[in-house]
């Protein structure tokens, strides 16, 4: 087993963690939304479910970026660098939009009812 195999395996494992985290977030969000149909005093709002799901998506994307950085460093072709740049750009835009949305949702949750 040489260094390129270790790098490839590490990138693959990181990608799988990203998939697992996003799948977990989606499953958790669906479960929380379904539990809202049968209230048991949980107090989960749609805003909170969306906020938690958004945070898990961003975390999962971080793992994908780490995987792509490792892949790009091991095989620094123009295609890989452009792919990494595109992914980082998309992730940055998503992070900004999700941060803005979750900040608005927090304001709504903290606003006095009345």
Instruction: Please write the string of helix (H) and strand (E) elements.
Output: HHH
Radius of gyration, Cα only, in angstroms? Answer: 18 Å
Please report the number of helical segments. Answer: 3
Largest sheet: none
Oligomer: single chain
What is the overall silhouette?
A: elongated
- Whole-Å distance between the termini? 65 Å
Structural class: mainly alpha
Mean pLDDT: 83
Number of strand elements:
0
Helical content stands at over 70%
Low-pLDDT ranges: none
The fraction of residues in strands falls at under 5%
Describe the structure.
The protein has 114 residues and is an all-alpha fold. The protein is 85% helix and 0% strand. Helix 1 (3-37) runs antiparallel to helix 2 and helix 2 (46-74) packs antiparallel against helix 3 (78-110). The radius of gyration is 18 Å and the shape is elongated. The mean pLDDT is 83.
Q: Briefly, what is this?
A:
With about 110 residues, this protein is mostly helical.
Topology:
Elements: H1 3-37, H2 46-74, H3 78-110
Key phrases:
114 residues, mainly alpha
